[in-house]
Design a protein that fits this description.
Elements (H helix, E strand, L loop, with lengths): L2 H10 L13 H15 L8 E5 L7 H6 L3 E6 L2 H10 L4 E4 L5 H5 L4 E6 L8 H13 L1 E9 L21 H11 L1 E3 L7 E5 L5
Parallel strand pairs: 1-2, 1-4, 2-3, 4-5
Antiparallel strand pairs: 5-7, 6-7
Length: about 200
Amino acid sequence: MTADDVIRAWDQADPTAIHPLRNVSEDAYWESGRAQAAMLATVIPDGAKVLDFGCGDGRVAIPMAALGFEVTAVDASQNMLDRLAERDPDVTTVQADADGIAGHLGRRRMDAVYALAVLIHHSYQDCLHIITKLRAATKLGGILVLDWPVSETPAESDSWIGVTTWSREQQDDACAAIGLEPVDSDLPWGVYRAVKAGS
């Protein structure tokens, strides 16, 4: 499945299909976003300029803005961004895939970038491409938080709602090539510092 296939499926998805908690209740869905924003705030400096890549309808971006972060919410789906804007018109939104980030930022770099429940849906090749673009959008020394799981039995997703997992060796090699230094944290996602590639 290509990145374009994933984006197309995401854009056309019924809101109840994008997160399992939507089947519990809308309150549970939004509360999970507030909880994840609180977790992100433990590793991202107060008031940082952050990019939420694959922000969807703002489940995490909106509470991050409420915590005082300067959020740029990026998604390839205008449908998702419209839902976000309906809920909070003050959050900056940008319609772009990974390749479109640089065009929006120009020479600016973000203090932090996070991508939750995004990378897991992409092939190895597309995931590495996305991570490379996210790293390029992050200032040297900045923080990246990536839902990029490691498994004893790594496997590539074959559908837009599947989960791609990586071996520790694959991930270590990618980090070195892209310029990511793992940071110890208690978060359920990988936390990385942006460093020069090959460091």
